[in-house]
Amino acid sequence: MNTLTHLQDDRLAALRSDALAIFHSSLAACNVDQAFARHLEFDAKSMLRRRSAVLPPVEHSLAGVKRVQVIAFGKAAVPMLDALLSRLPSRLRVDGICAAPVLPEKRQKHIQYFAGSHPLPNEESFDAAREALALVRRADRHTLIFFLLSGGGSSICELPRDRSIPLEDVRAFYETLVLSGAPIAEINTVRKFFSSIKGGQLAQAAPDAMRFTLLLADVPLKDLGVVASSPTLPDTSTWAQCSAVLDQWDLLPRFPASVRAYFQALAAQPPPAPTAQGLQNMEMDVLLSNHDFVNAARDQARALGYKVVIDNTCDEWPFDRAAAYLVERMRTLRAEWGRVCLLSSGEVTVQMDRVRHGCGGRNQHFALKTALLLDGFPGDVMVLSAGSDGLDGNSPAAGATVDPTTATRARAFHFDPEQSLARFNSCPLFTALGDAIMTGPTGNNLRDLRIFLSDS
Question: Which residues, at least 6 apart from 308, have a Cβ–Cβ distance to it below 8 Å?
């Protein structure tokens, strides 16, 4: 290995170290307990809600509250539940439901725990939804309900309106939606018309209670109704919108027969337009969002001496189109600034066959496509793409890092990068190269982050 190659390896290693530092510091900055501390404060008689830096706080009396219910589901359900319960006045009687993909060893009293599954529901997802509905239906005007919602909640807590549809068909329905390539907002529009809790139905089951929805938003802030398919917020989705999604992505023929029959029956007798009935005394607050995640990355990149540019243009784009756009964007920025960090947050989409795909997820597929585009790229560039939840698709990795040498190194390990990409089998390649990012489940979900770094 010549001196030039050594120097390139050293520069790429330094860039990779910076990219990982930016990603991990962003995760650390988005601490759920600290977010609760910024938004809610309790004393024996009241709850103080701090809405934002520019809006005055709102105080809610707890004098008439005799019981508290907590319904927490999603990838961040456990830390959200723990953070809330540690702050509630001890005199209040609390009952609740917690549905999460990974359950804690230490569990809270009077809370029922369910190991719901993501991205496909399981039997405990059904059990969690049944128990949540049963619990909130017992609420009255002396009940205070907290709904703690985070990404992944759509599958982690689910129950079809048509209870005759078996679990295996519901799982196939979810898999078809996830692999369709449709944007998450459109996927969740379809889910709302399928589910017995989504689209505001869970909160509507307790019309007399005082209700607060606290969100960890894994969607753009303009689309908060998409979080966990909006079980507690007023729903504006119409059957015409749902029908259009089914047609655009040719979904009905790919659904199991029982699910297809259900939607065909809806088409024959469309449901009434949604209303906000039963949701009048509901309040909502966003504890953390993707903005917090990317802004933390921006601050860390600046601290490392990079000129930072944030470009979220390709949110919800197909992964290959997003990769081409960001590589070209980086090429332009690098020529202008040299030491530059391009940040892109949000999620890209992947359309796959239900059967023939390997191990990976949208972040690793994006990374591998980027590696092929960077093959032979002049200069030193490092790219990281990873999810804030710590899991990418059906793989154990959060994402991966790539650079202009990735494709060459993969071929030296007897991988065919183009074939791995075509088979959506990116995780084995990145694992073999040591470029997979392994965090384990983070207990958070604030969408994905793509980091492009250059030092020359």
Answer: 298, 301, 302, 340, 341, 343
